[in-house]
Design a protein that fits this description.
This protein is an all-beta fold and 559 residues long. The protein has helices spanning 114-117, 325-329; strands at residues 2-6, 11-21, 25-36, 39-40, 56-61, 64-69, 75-76, 81-93, 97-108, 111-112, 128-133, 137-149, 153-172, 177-198, 201-222, 228-230, 240-254, 259-275, 288-307, 310-321, 332-335, 338-341, 349-363, 366-385, 393-396, 399-425, 429-442, 448-449, 457-466, 469-478, 508-520, 523-530, 550-557. A hairpin with a 2-residue loop joins β23 and β24 (366-385).
Protein backbone atom coordinates (compact mmCIF):
# COMPACT_ATOMS: atom_id res chain seq x y z
CA UNK A 1 0.00 0.00 0.00
CA UNK A 2 1.28 3.48 -0.89
CA UNK A 3 0.01 6.88 0.26
CA UNK A 4 1.59 10.03 -1.19
CA UNK A 5 0.91 13.71 -0.53
CA UNK A 6 2.58 16.70 -2.22
CA UNK A 7 2.13 20.40 -1.63
CA UNK A 8 2.80 22.17 -4.96
CA UNK A 9 0.40 19.85 -6.78
CA UNK A 10 -2.02 19.51 -3.85
CA UNK A 11 -1.64 15.80 -4.62
CA UNK A 12 -3.35 12.94 -2.85
CA UNK A 13 -2.45 9.51 -4.22
CA UNK A 14 -3.51 6.12 -2.86
CA UNK A 15 -2.24 2.82 -4.25
CA UNK A 16 -3.34 -0.57 -2.96
CA UNK A 17 -1.87 -3.84 -4.22
CA UNK A 18 -2.67 -7.48 -3.43
CA UNK A 19 -0.69 -10.51 -4.52
CA UNK A 20 -0.99 -14.23 -3.88
CA UNK A 21 0.49 -17.33 -5.40
CA UNK A 22 1.44 -20.97 -5.33
CA UNK A 23 4.16 -22.90 -7.13
CA UNK A 24 2.39 -22.72 -10.50
CA UNK A 25 -0.07 -19.85 -10.08
CA UNK A 26 0.18 -16.19 -9.09
CA UNK A 27 -2.21 -13.25 -9.00
CA UNK A 28 -1.56 -9.51 -8.73
CA UNK A 29 -4.34 -6.94 -8.21
CA UNK A 30 -3.87 -3.20 -7.81
CA UNK A 31 -5.95 -0.01 -7.60
CA UNK A 32 -4.56 3.52 -7.86
CA UNK A 33 -6.35 6.83 -7.37
CA UNK A 34 -4.72 10.25 -7.70
CA UNK A 35 -6.22 13.67 -7.15
CA UNK A 36 -4.22 16.72 -8.24
CA UNK A 37 -5.14 20.31 -7.46
CA UNK A 38 -4.05 23.40 -9.36
CA UNK A 39 -0.26 23.58 -9.71
CA UNK A 40 1.56 26.27 -7.78
CA UNK A 41 4.49 27.49 -9.86
CA UNK A 42 7.77 28.90 -8.52
CA UNK A 43 7.88 32.54 -7.47
CA UNK A 44 11.58 33.38 -7.84
CA UNK A 45 14.00 33.94 -10.68
CA UNK A 46 11.61 34.97 -13.48
CA UNK A 47 13.43 37.69 -15.44
CA UNK A 48 10.61 38.11 -17.96
CA UNK A 49 7.76 40.12 -16.37
CA UNK A 50 4.35 38.60 -17.00
CA UNK A 51 5.67 35.37 -18.49
CA UNK A 52 3.81 32.43 -17.00
CA UNK A 53 1.55 34.55 -14.80
CA UNK A 54 -2.18 33.84 -15.04
CA UNK A 55 -3.97 37.04 -14.05
CA UNK A 56 -7.50 35.93 -14.88
CA UNK A 57 -9.87 33.01 -15.18
CA UNK A 58 -12.99 32.82 -17.32
CA UNK A 59 -16.27 32.20 -15.51
CA UNK A 60 -19.75 31.92 -16.98
CA UNK A 61 -21.96 34.10 -14.79
CA UNK A 62 -25.72 34.09 -15.50
CA UNK A 63 -25.06 32.73 -19.00
CA UNK A 64 -22.35 35.28 -19.89
CA UNK A 65 -18.57 34.83 -19.94
CA UNK A 66 -16.53 37.15 -17.76
CA UNK A 67 -12.81 37.52 -17.10
CA UNK A 68 -12.41 37.24 -13.33
CA UNK A 69 -9.13 38.38 -11.71
CA UNK A 70 -6.99 35.55 -10.38
CA UNK A 71 -6.23 36.55 -6.81
CA UNK A 72 -2.99 34.55 -6.86
CA UNK A 73 -1.23 34.61 -10.23
CA UNK A 74 1.18 31.91 -9.05
CA UNK A 75 -1.64 29.38 -8.89
CA UNK A 76 -2.31 27.91 -12.34
CA UNK A 77 -6.08 27.81 -12.09
CA UNK A 78 -7.71 24.97 -13.96
CA UNK A 79 -4.69 22.65 -14.05
CA UNK A 80 -6.07 20.18 -11.52
CA UNK A 81 -7.64 16.80 -12.31
CA UNK A 82 -8.02 13.30 -10.94
CA UNK A 83 -7.46 9.82 -12.37
CA UNK A 84 -7.73 6.20 -11.37
CA UNK A 85 -6.47 2.88 -12.66
CA UNK A 86 -6.96 -0.83 -12.09
CA UNK A 87 -4.66 -3.74 -12.93
CA UNK A 88 -5.09 -7.51 -12.76
CA UNK A 89 -2.46 -10.09 -13.72
CA UNK A 90 -2.64 -13.88 -13.61
CA UNK A 91 0.38 -16.14 -14.10
CA UNK A 92 0.03 -19.85 -14.90
CA UNK A 93 3.13 -22.03 -15.15
CA UNK A 94 3.79 -25.57 -16.31
CA UNK A 95 7.07 -27.38 -16.85
CA UNK A 96 8.26 -25.40 -19.90
CA UNK A 97 5.40 -22.98 -20.54
CA UNK A 98 4.33 -19.79 -18.78
CA UNK A 99 1.08 -17.90 -19.46
CA UNK A 100 0.56 -14.31 -18.32
CA UNK A 101 -2.88 -12.66 -18.58
CA UNK A 102 -2.87 -8.89 -18.17
CA UNK A 103 -5.94 -6.64 -17.75
CA UNK A 104 -5.68 -2.86 -17.28
CA UNK A 105 -8.22 -0.06 -17.18
CA UNK A 106 -7.63 3.64 -16.55
CA UNK A 107 -9.79 6.74 -16.68
CA UNK A 108 -9.68 10.37 -15.61
CA UNK A 109 -11.80 13.43 -14.98
CA UNK A 110 -11.97 16.23 -17.52
CA UNK A 111 -8.46 17.67 -17.98
CA UNK A 112 -8.17 21.32 -18.95
CA UNK A 113 -5.85 22.34 -21.77
CA UNK A 114 -4.26 24.92 -19.48
CA UNK A 115 -2.10 26.60 -22.12
CA UNK A 116 -5.11 27.46 -24.27
CA UNK A 117 -6.95 28.91 -21.27
CA UNK A 118 -4.15 31.48 -20.82
CA UNK A 119 -4.23 32.89 -24.36
CA UNK A 120 -5.42 36.45 -25.03
CA UNK A 121 -5.73 38.62 -28.14
CA UNK A 122 -3.81 41.85 -28.74
CA UNK A 123 -6.36 43.73 -26.63
CA UNK A 124 -5.77 41.43 -23.66
CA UNK A 125 -9.15 39.70 -24.00
CA UNK A 126 -9.33 35.94 -23.43
CA UNK A 127 -9.53 33.85 -26.61
CA UNK A 128 -11.01 30.77 -24.99
CA UNK A 129 -13.72 30.23 -22.40
CA UNK A 130 -13.45 26.42 -22.24
CA UNK A 131 -10.84 23.98 -23.57
CA UNK A 132 -10.62 20.56 -21.97
CA UNK A 133 -10.00 16.91 -22.71
CA UNK A 134 -12.89 14.69 -21.75
CA UNK A 135 -12.28 11.63 -19.55
CA UNK A 136 -9.43 9.67 -21.13
CA UNK A 137 -10.25 5.98 -21.04
CA UNK A 138 -7.85 3.13 -21.80
CA UNK A 139 -8.50 -0.61 -21.74
CA UNK A 140 -5.72 -3.16 -22.30
CA UNK A 141 -6.02 -6.94 -22.46
CA UNK A 142 -3.04 -9.12 -23.33
CA UNK A 143 -2.01 -12.75 -23.27
CA UNK A 144 1.70 -13.57 -23.15
CA UNK A 145 3.12 -17.09 -23.57
CA UNK A 146 6.74 -18.02 -22.82
CA UNK A 147 7.91 -21.47 -23.85
CA UNK A 148 10.93 -23.48 -24.94
CA UNK A 149 11.37 -26.48 -27.23
CA UNK A 150 14.05 -28.07 -29.39
CA UNK A 151 12.61 -26.80 -32.70
CA UNK A 152 12.03 -23.08 -32.13
CA UNK A 153 14.21 -22.57 -29.05
CA UNK A 154 12.97 -19.97 -26.56
CA UNK A 155 9.73 -18.35 -27.66
CA UNK A 156 7.64 -15.40 -26.52
CA UNK A 157 4.24 -14.68 -28.09
CA UNK A 158 2.06 -11.75 -27.05
CA UNK A 159 -1.47 -11.07 -28.28
CA UNK A 160 -3.01 -7.77 -27.19
CA UNK A 161 -6.05 -5.57 -27.64
CA UNK A 162 -6.39 -1.93 -26.61
CA UNK A 163 -9.26 0.51 -26.66
CA UNK A 164 -8.59 4.21 -26.14
CA UNK A 165 -11.11 7.05 -26.09
CA UNK A 166 -10.40 10.73 -25.70
CA UNK A 167 -12.21 13.93 -26.60
CA UNK A 168 -11.32 17.55 -27.21
CA UNK A 169 -13.88 20.13 -26.15
CA UNK A 170 -13.56 23.87 -26.69
CA UNK A 171 -15.60 27.06 -26.72
CA UNK A 172 -14.43 30.56 -27.65
CA UNK A 173 -14.85 33.45 -25.24
CA UNK A 174 -18.45 34.79 -25.24
CA UNK A 175 -19.53 32.13 -27.74
CA UNK A 176 -22.48 29.85 -27.03
CA UNK A 177 -21.09 27.04 -29.21
CA UNK A 178 -19.23 24.29 -27.35
CA UNK A 179 -17.38 22.01 -29.78
CA UNK A 180 -17.01 18.32 -29.00
CA UNK A 181 -14.57 16.13 -30.98
CA UNK A 182 -14.32 12.48 -29.91
CA UNK A 183 -11.72 9.95 -31.03
CA UNK A 184 -11.86 6.20 -30.44
CA UNK A 185 -8.87 4.01 -31.27
CA UNK A 186 -8.91 0.21 -31.40
CA UNK A 187 -5.53 -1.53 -31.52
CA UNK A 188 -4.86 -5.21 -32.10
CA UNK A 189 -1.38 -6.72 -32.12
CA UNK A 190 0.51 -10.00 -32.25
CA UNK A 191 4.23 -10.24 -31.50
CA UNK A 192 6.18 -13.47 -31.79
CA UNK A 193 9.87 -13.50 -30.81
CA UNK A 194 12.20 -16.50 -30.79
CA UNK A 195 15.80 -17.21 -29.78
CA UNK A 196 17.79 -20.25 -30.87
CA UNK A 197 21.24 -21.12 -29.55
CA UNK A 198 23.30 -22.34 -32.53
CA UNK A 199 26.78 -22.18 -31.06
CA UNK A 200 28.74 -20.02 -31.65
CA UNK A 201 25.78 -17.95 -32.95
CA UNK A 202 22.64 -16.95 -31.07
CA UNK A 203 19.87 -16.58 -33.64
CA UNK A 204 16.85 -14.35 -33.13
CA UNK A 205 13.79 -14.09 -35.37
CA UNK A 206 10.18 -13.04 -35.18
CA UNK A 207 7.13 -11.37 -36.65
CA UNK A 208 4.88 -8.44 -35.71
CA UNK A 209 1.29 -7.81 -36.78
CA UNK A 210 -0.41 -4.54 -35.86
CA UNK A 211 -3.84 -3.14 -36.71
CA UNK A 212 -5.24 0.29 -35.77
CA UNK A 213 -8.69 1.73 -36.37
CA UNK A 214 -9.40 5.40 -35.65
CA UNK A 215 -13.02 6.56 -35.50
CA UNK A 216 -13.73 10.30 -35.26
CA UNK A 217 -17.02 12.02 -34.60
CA UNK A 218 -17.93 15.57 -33.68
CA UNK A 219 -20.83 17.84 -32.84
CA UNK A 220 -21.41 21.38 -31.59
CA UNK A 221 -23.65 22.09 -28.60
CA UNK A 222 -25.37 25.36 -27.77
CA UNK A 223 -24.71 25.81 -24.05
CA UNK A 224 -27.97 27.74 -23.59
CA UNK A 225 -30.46 25.74 -25.68
CA UNK A 226 -28.56 22.38 -25.61
CA UNK A 227 -29.30 22.02 -29.36
CA UNK A 228 -26.68 19.96 -31.19
CA UNK A 229 -25.45 20.66 -34.73
CA UNK A 230 -22.90 19.12 -37.10
CA UNK A 231 -19.20 19.88 -36.71
CA UNK A 232 -16.04 19.01 -38.65
CA UNK A 233 -14.06 16.08 -37.23
CA UNK A 234 -10.38 16.08 -36.26
CA UNK A 235 -9.61 13.06 -38.45
CA UNK A 236 -11.51 11.75 -41.52
CA UNK A 237 -15.08 10.99 -40.45
CA UNK A 238 -15.29 7.75 -42.46
CA UNK A 239 -12.64 6.18 -40.26
CA UNK A 240 -8.95 5.42 -40.69
CA UNK A 241 -7.26 2.03 -40.70
CA UNK A 242 -3.57 1.22 -40.55
CA UNK A 243 -1.90 -2.16 -40.84
CA UNK A 244 1.71 -2.98 -40.07
CA UNK A 245 3.31 -6.34 -40.91
CA UNK A 246 6.94 -7.03 -40.11
CA UNK A 247 9.42 -9.91 -39.97
CA UNK A 248 12.99 -9.86 -38.70
CA UNK A 249 16.03 -11.98 -38.04
CA UNK A 250 19.20 -11.21 -36.12
CA UNK A 251 22.35 -12.96 -34.99
CA UNK A 252 24.92 -12.51 -32.23
CA UNK A 253 28.33 -14.09 -32.91
CA UNK A 254 30.89 -14.33 -30.12
CA UNK A 255 34.13 -14.28 -32.11
CA UNK A 256 36.28 -14.73 -29.01
CA UNK A 257 36.48 -13.40 -25.46
CA UNK A 258 37.27 -9.88 -26.73
CA UNK A 259 35.00 -9.46 -29.77
CA UNK A 260 31.24 -9.90 -30.20
CA UNK A 261 29.56 -9.15 -33.53
CA UNK A 262 25.85 -8.57 -34.11
CA UNK A 263 23.74 -8.05 -37.25
CA UNK A 264 20.06 -8.04 -38.16
CA UNK A 265 17.58 -7.29 -40.91
CA UNK A 266 13.87 -6.37 -40.76
CA UNK A 267 11.22 -6.07 -43.46
CA UNK A 268 8.15 -3.92 -42.75
CA UNK A 269 5.02 -3.32 -44.81
CA UNK A 270 2.62 -0.49 -43.89
CA UNK A 271 -0.80 0.36 -45.23
CA UNK A 272 -3.10 3.29 -44.38
CA UNK A 273 -6.61 4.08 -45.60
CA UNK A 274 -8.79 7.04 -44.56
CA UNK A 275 -12.26 7.87 -45.81
CA UNK A 276 -13.87 11.33 -45.96
CA UNK A 277 -17.67 11.24 -46.02
CA UNK A 278 -18.89 14.74 -45.16
CA UNK A 279 -16.98 17.34 -47.18
CA UNK A 280 -19.39 20.19 -46.54
CA UNK A 281 -16.93 21.85 -44.14
CA UNK A 282 -13.83 21.44 -46.30
CA UNK A 283 -14.45 20.44 -49.94
CA UNK A 284 -11.16 18.62 -50.40
CA UNK A 285 -10.50 17.34 -53.96
CA UNK A 286 -10.54 13.67 -52.85
CA UNK A 287 -12.78 11.33 -50.83
CA UNK A 288 -10.14 8.96 -49.51
CA UNK A 289 -6.51 8.94 -48.57
CA UNK A 290 -4.51 5.78 -49.24
CA UNK A 291 -0.87 4.98 -48.81
CA UNK A 292 1.25 1.86 -48.63
CA UNK A 293 4.99 1.42 -48.28
CA UNK A 294 7.55 -1.25 -47.58
CA UNK A 295 10.96 -0.76 -46.04
CA UNK A 296 13.95 -3.06 -45.54
CA UNK A 297 16.14 -1.99 -42.62
CA UNK A 298 19.30 -3.44 -41.16
CA UNK A 299 21.77 -3.02 -38.32
CA UNK A 300 25.28 -4.22 -37.60
CA UNK A 301 27.40 -3.77 -34.53
CA UNK A 302 30.63 -4.75 -32.84
CA UNK A 303 31.48 -4.96 -29.12
CA UNK A 304 35.14 -4.87 -28.09
CA UNK A 305 36.18 -6.01 -24.60
CA UNK A 306 39.91 -5.23 -24.25
CA UNK A 307 39.79 -6.23 -20.59
CA UNK A 308 37.39 -6.46 -17.65
CA UNK A 309 37.41 -2.68 -17.16
CA UNK A 310 36.72 -1.49 -20.71
CA UNK A 311 33.89 -1.98 -23.16
CA UNK A 312 33.70 -0.32 -26.60
CA UNK A 313 30.63 -0.66 -28.80
CA UNK A 314 29.91 0.61 -32.31
CA UNK A 315 26.74 0.26 -34.35
CA UNK A 316 25.37 1.30 -37.71
CA UNK A 317 21.71 0.93 -38.62
CA UNK A 318 18.94 2.21 -40.82
CA UNK A 319 15.50 3.29 -39.69
CA UNK A 320 12.23 4.74 -40.89
CA UNK A 321 8.99 6.34 -39.77
CA UNK A 322 5.88 5.80 -41.85
CA UNK A 323 3.38 8.69 -41.87
CA UNK A 324 0.57 7.89 -39.45
CA UNK A 325 -3.01 9.12 -39.38
CA UNK A 326 -1.95 12.25 -37.50
CA UNK A 327 0.72 13.07 -40.10
CA UNK A 328 -1.29 12.19 -43.17
CA UNK A 329 -4.95 12.97 -42.56
CA UNK A 330 -5.41 15.42 -39.68
CA UNK A 331 -7.77 18.31 -40.40
CA UNK A 332 -7.58 20.65 -37.46
CA UNK A 333 -6.40 23.96 -36.07
CA UNK A 334 -3.18 23.32 -34.16
CA UNK A 335 -2.87 26.54 -32.19
CA UNK A 336 -0.61 29.55 -32.68
CA UNK A 337 -2.78 30.66 -35.61
CA UNK A 338 -2.07 27.57 -37.73
CA UNK A 339 -4.57 25.35 -39.54
CA UNK A 340 -3.42 21.87 -40.60
CA UNK A 341 -4.65 20.32 -43.87
CA UNK A 342 -4.02 16.72 -45.05
CA UNK A 343 -1.21 15.80 -47.40
CA UNK A 344 -1.92 12.46 -49.13
CA UNK A 345 1.47 12.49 -50.91
CA UNK A 346 3.72 11.90 -47.91
CA UNK A 347 6.53 9.35 -48.05
CA UNK A 348 8.20 7.50 -45.16
CA UNK A 349 10.97 9.29 -43.32
CA UNK A 350 14.25 7.33 -43.47
CA UNK A 351 17.37 7.50 -41.35
CA UNK A 352 20.97 6.32 -41.34
CA UNK A 353 22.21 5.94 -37.77
CA UNK A 354 25.71 5.74 -36.30
CA UNK A 355 26.45 5.17 -32.62
CA UNK A 356 29.61 4.78 -30.56
CA UNK A 357 29.62 3.81 -26.88
CA UNK A 358 32.34 3.55 -24.23
CA UNK A 359 32.23 2.04 -20.74
CA UNK A 360 35.24 2.61 -18.48
CA UNK A 361 35.77 1.13 -15.02
CA UNK A 362 38.68 3.42 -14.07
CA UNK A 363 38.69 2.16 -10.49
CA UNK A 364 36.55 -0.30 -8.57
CA UNK A 365 34.52 2.71 -7.40
CA UNK A 366 34.68 4.89 -10.54
CA UNK A 367 32.52 4.09 -13.56
CA UNK A 368 32.08 6.23 -16.69
CA UNK A 369 29.67 5.73 -19.58
CA UNK A 370 29.90 7.84 -22.73
CA UNK A 371 27.98 7.55 -25.98
CA UNK A 372 27.62 9.63 -29.12
CA UNK A 373 25.33 9.33 -32.11
CA UNK A 374 24.79 10.85 -35.52
CA UNK A 375 21.58 10.43 -37.56
CA UNK A 376 21.14 11.44 -41.19
CA UNK A 377 17.51 11.88 -42.31
CA UNK A 378 16.01 11.84 -45.77
CA UNK A 379 12.40 12.80 -46.62
CA UNK A 380 12.06 14.34 -43.17
CA UNK A 381 8.47 14.67 -41.90
CA UNK A 382 7.91 18.22 -40.68
CA UNK A 383 5.32 20.98 -41.08
CA UNK A 384 5.53 23.79 -43.62
CA UNK A 385 3.39 26.53 -45.19
CA UNK A 386 0.64 25.35 -47.54
CA UNK A 387 -2.59 26.59 -49.13
CA UNK A 388 -6.28 25.75 -49.20
CA UNK A 389 -8.38 26.62 -52.26
CA UNK A 390 -5.53 28.82 -53.47
CA UNK A 391 -5.16 30.82 -50.25
CA UNK A 392 -2.38 30.66 -47.66
CA UNK A 393 -4.81 31.66 -44.87
CA UNK A 394 -8.26 30.54 -43.74
CA UNK A 395 -10.83 31.78 -41.24
CA UNK A 396 -11.40 28.82 -38.93
CA UNK A 397 -13.53 29.01 -35.80
CA UNK A 398 -13.63 32.81 -36.18
CA UNK A 399 -9.80 33.05 -36.23
CA UNK A 400 -7.63 34.01 -39.22
CA UNK A 401 -5.13 31.14 -39.43
CA UNK A 402 -2.15 30.25 -41.60
CA UNK A 403 -2.57 27.07 -43.64
CA UNK A 404 0.15 24.48 -42.97
CA UNK A 405 0.62 20.81 -43.77
CA UNK A 406 3.03 17.96 -43.04
CA UNK A 407 5.65 17.66 -45.77
CA UNK A 408 8.80 15.71 -46.63
CA UNK A 409 11.78 18.03 -46.35
CA UNK A 410 14.79 16.83 -48.32
CA UNK A 411 17.33 16.06 -45.60
CA UNK A 412 18.12 16.67 -41.96
CA UNK A 413 20.76 15.79 -39.42
CA UNK A 414 20.67 15.00 -35.73
CA UNK A 415 23.58 14.34 -33.43
CA UNK A 416 24.31 14.31 -29.75
CA UNK A 417 26.08 12.70 -26.85
CA UNK A 418 25.45 11.45 -23.34
CA UNK A 419 27.86 11.29 -20.39
CA UNK A 420 27.27 9.36 -17.15
CA UNK A 421 29.82 9.18 -14.34
CA UNK A 422 29.52 7.62 -10.89
CA UNK A 423 31.86 7.53 -7.92
CA UNK A 424 31.39 5.49 -4.74
CA UNK A 425 33.42 6.54 -1.68
CA UNK A 426 33.61 6.27 2.11
CA UNK A 427 31.48 3.10 1.97
CA UNK A 428 28.13 4.88 2.29
CA UNK A 429 28.33 7.61 -0.37
CA UNK A 430 27.74 7.65 -4.12
CA UNK A 431 28.16 10.58 -6.49
CA UNK A 432 26.56 10.43 -9.95
CA UNK A 433 26.16 12.88 -12.80
CA UNK A 434 24.38 12.55 -16.17
CA UNK A 435 24.50 15.06 -19.05
CA UNK A 436 22.75 14.94 -22.45
CA UNK A 437 23.12 17.17 -25.52
CA UNK A 438 21.21 17.04 -28.83
CA UNK A 439 21.47 19.14 -32.02
CA UNK A 440 19.18 18.90 -35.05
CA UNK A 441 18.84 20.81 -38.31
CA UNK A 442 16.85 20.59 -41.56
CA UNK A 443 19.22 20.89 -44.52
CA UNK A 444 17.94 23.83 -46.52
CA UNK A 445 19.84 26.72 -48.16
CA UNK A 446 20.62 27.73 -44.61
CA UNK A 447 20.22 24.98 -42.04
CA UNK A 448 16.93 25.40 -40.17
CA UNK A 449 16.21 23.93 -36.70
CA UNK A 450 14.36 20.63 -36.40
CA UNK A 451 11.43 20.92 -34.01
CA UNK A 452 11.12 18.94 -30.76
CA UNK A 453 14.87 19.16 -30.05
CA UNK A 454 15.37 19.72 -26.28
CA UNK A 455 18.15 21.91 -24.89
CA UNK A 456 21.01 20.28 -23.02
CA UNK A 457 19.89 18.75 -19.72
CA UNK A 458 21.27 16.72 -16.87
CA UNK A 459 21.16 15.57 -13.26
CA UNK A 460 23.85 15.48 -10.56
CA UNK A 461 23.27 13.71 -7.25
CA UNK A 462 25.00 12.81 -4.01
CA UNK A 463 23.52 9.81 -2.17
CA UNK A 464 24.17 8.39 1.27
CA UNK A 465 22.80 5.02 2.39
CA UNK A 466 23.45 3.44 5.76
CA UNK A 467 21.27 0.90 7.48
CA UNK A 468 17.68 2.06 7.55
CA UNK A 469 18.49 5.60 6.36
CA UNK A 470 18.86 7.01 2.86
CA UNK A 471 19.56 10.66 1.99
CA UNK A 472 19.91 12.08 -1.52
CA UNK A 473 20.66 15.63 -2.61
CA UNK A 474 20.35 16.27 -6.34
CA UNK A 475 20.16 19.07 -8.86
CA UNK A 476 18.26 19.07 -12.15
CA UNK A 477 19.30 21.49 -14.87
CA UNK A 478 18.46 22.53 -18.43
CA UNK A 479 20.40 24.77 -20.76
CA UNK A 480 18.70 27.64 -22.58
CA UNK A 481 16.85 27.23 -25.87
CA UNK A 482 17.90 30.22 -28.01
CA UNK A 483 15.64 31.84 -30.58
CA UNK A 484 18.04 30.63 -33.28
CA UNK A 485 17.26 27.03 -32.22
CA UNK A 486 13.46 27.38 -32.44
CA UNK A 487 11.45 25.94 -35.33
CA UNK A 488 8.78 28.60 -35.87
CA UNK A 489 7.05 26.54 -38.58
CA UNK A 490 6.61 23.42 -36.49
CA UNK A 491 5.51 22.60 -32.97
CA UNK A 492 8.11 24.19 -30.69
CA UNK A 493 5.30 26.32 -29.15
CA UNK A 494 7.17 29.61 -29.11
CA UNK A 495 3.92 31.35 -28.11
CA UNK A 496 4.30 29.86 -24.61
CA UNK A 497 7.99 30.73 -24.24
CA UNK A 498 9.59 33.88 -22.85
CA UNK A 499 9.61 35.36 -26.39
CA UNK A 500 6.20 34.74 -27.97
CA UNK A 501 7.31 35.73 -31.48
CA UNK A 502 10.84 34.30 -31.85
CA UNK A 503 10.90 31.73 -29.09
CA UNK A 504 13.28 31.62 -26.14
CA UNK A 505 13.46 29.39 -23.05
CA UNK A 506 15.96 30.44 -20.37
CA UNK A 507 18.22 27.97 -18.60
CA UNK A 508 17.15 26.73 -15.19
CA UNK A 509 18.36 24.68 -12.26
CA UNK A 510 16.56 23.21 -9.25
CA UNK A 511 17.93 21.89 -5.94
CA UNK A 512 16.20 18.89 -4.42
CA UNK A 513 16.41 16.71 -1.32
CA UNK A 514 15.05 13.25 -0.50
CA UNK A 515 15.04 11.30 2.76
CA UNK A 516 13.97 7.67 3.26
CA UNK A 517 13.71 5.65 6.45
CA UNK A 518 12.76 2.01 6.90
CA UNK A 519 10.72 2.11 10.10
CA UNK A 520 10.16 -1.66 10.11
CA UNK A 521 10.33 -4.58 7.68
CA UNK A 522 6.83 -3.66 6.47
CA UNK A 523 6.81 0.16 6.65
CA UNK A 524 8.90 2.75 4.80
CA UNK A 525 8.57 6.51 4.97
CA UNK A 526 9.86 8.96 2.38
CA UNK A 527 10.08 12.74 2.53
CA UNK A 528 11.26 14.96 -0.31
CA UNK A 529 11.64 18.68 -0.83
CA UNK A 530 11.76 19.52 -4.53
CA UNK A 531 12.74 22.85 -6.11
CA UNK A 532 13.95 24.08 -2.71
CA UNK A 533 14.65 27.64 -3.92
CA UNK A 534 11.11 27.94 -5.38
CA UNK A 535 12.56 28.62 -8.84
CA UNK A 536 10.18 29.66 -11.62
CA UNK A 537 10.82 27.78 -14.87
CA UNK A 538 9.19 26.17 -17.84
CA UNK A 539 10.54 23.18 -19.67
CA UNK A 540 11.05 23.69 -23.39
CA UNK A 541 7.86 23.67 -25.50
CA UNK A 542 5.57 23.46 -22.46
CA UNK A 543 2.54 25.70 -22.06
CA UNK A 544 2.41 25.23 -18.30
CA UNK A 545 4.97 26.26 -15.68
CA UNK A 546 6.73 23.69 -13.53
CA UNK A 547 5.89 23.30 -9.86
CA UNK A 548 7.52 25.57 -7.31
CA UNK A 549 8.78 24.42 -3.93
CA UNK A 550 7.14 21.05 -3.36
CA UNK A 551 7.05 18.98 -0.18
CA UNK A 552 6.31 15.29 -0.71
CA UNK A 553 5.40 12.75 1.96
CA UNK A 554 4.96 9.07 1.08
CA UNK A 555 4.25 6.02 3.21
CA UNK A 556 4.74 2.52 1.82
CA UNK A 557 3.43 -0.51 3.70
CA UNK A 558 4.03 -4.15 2.74
CA UNK A 559 1.88 -6.65 4.62
Amino acid sequence: MLTRLSSAFDEKTQHIQFSAGTKNFASLTSFTFSDFGDIRQGKKGNKFPGWGSLNFTVENIHGKDSMVPNGNSWIQRGSGYHQYGMLQKFLFRSKKTEHLLNFQYASSSNINRYDRLTETNNAGVAKVAQWYYGPQQRLLMSWNVNFENKVSGKGNITTAYQFVEESRNNRNFKSTKLNHRIEQVKIGSVNADFKKDLQPVELGYGIELLYNHVHSRAYAENILTKIQTNLDTRYPDGGSNTQNYAAYTSGIYKINSKFIAQAGVRYTYNNLESSLLNKSFFPLPYSSIKQSSSVLTYNAGLVILPNEKWKISAQISTGFRTPNVDDLAKIFESGNGNFIVPNPNLKPEKTMNYELGLRMQLHKNILIHASGWYISYTDVLTTDASSYQGSSTIVYDSVQSNVITTVNKNKALLYGYSLDASLAFLEFFKFQSVYNYTYGRIKEQTHYPLDHIPPAFGKTSLEMKKGKFGITFYVLYNGKKDSSDYNLRGEDNQQYSADISKGFTPAWITYNFQFTYKISPVLNVQFALENITDRFYRTFSSGISAAGRNAVLALRMNL
